[in-house]
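Exam revision sheet. Question 4 asks you to relate a sequence to its structure. Input first:
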Amino acid sequence: MTRSAATKSPLSALSAEERAIDAFELLSDETRLAILVALWEEYEPFEAETGLRFSELYARVGTGDSGQFSYHLDRLDGQFVDATDEGYELSEMGLRFVQTVLAGAGIEEPDLGPARVDTTCTLCGGAVEILYEGDYLYILCTDCDGLWTEPGDRSHGHLGKFSLEPAGVSGRSPNEIYTAAWVSTFRKLYSMIEGVCPICSGPVERTLDVCDDHGPDGTCPSCGHRERVVARLRCPVCKEGAQSTAGSIAKYHPAVVGFYHDHGLALQHDIDDFETLVQRLNLGRTAVTVLSDEPPHVAVVIEIDGDRIRVELDETLSVVDIEE
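Answer key, structure tokens:
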């Protein structure tokens, strides 16, 4: 093996764009990471000047060689750091990077075993628990099979699985964590339904998947879901993804939002809206009928207090018909 082959960066084998690979390499140095953290500590979202002059930044980072420090700062300039007349400040990319690290690795991993939530399973009325594991919050029914099974896992009735940073769990009660997970997911779904990735602002591919071998009762052994129809949304740029029921997708249409409003139910919530959120999940029942397998085309009927609204979705999750 030649020396050049032995020392070649593993990143060179990746198919990612060159600028993305350069960004990974830029962040592999401790001094550069320290520069980003120092600038973040100075940053305030509503202040005009939030940067540091070279001398102030150098003093905060505390590296011994000003020449080496200047080299590392220059490498960051233009991607993660912006040079201004007043000094240096985080670029939007640099800010997002530090925020992501702090929301995840920057907070001690919460210890949240199964914890009871003050609601019941919408499928069977059983007790509901939440479990935080591997940056995911699982909502579980203790009595039934739930909406789907995790691969290789037949021991829990899964009602929800949400990507949630440790910051979303730390310092909150089980009810608040439950609400935060739903609210965060609603916002993510809304953005993706609108065609904008909430992570990178890229485009979103929206598909409606119908299981051809769906079982009649419980979770299907073929697809692992209780529902025959699953809505999937995926960003081809950063690969952010989300999946949901067709009923949940239909609830984002303005006509359905108005239908809920007319029946005293809000489709917007905050961390103190646990009871309203439970109302939304319990009272807004949906029934999905497959109108066509190929291309997928479904009708979603939402009924509240004897009133109903019917929404048709095509294979791209677009609403093609409304009947009130």
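Marking note for examiners. The longest helix spans residues 174-193.
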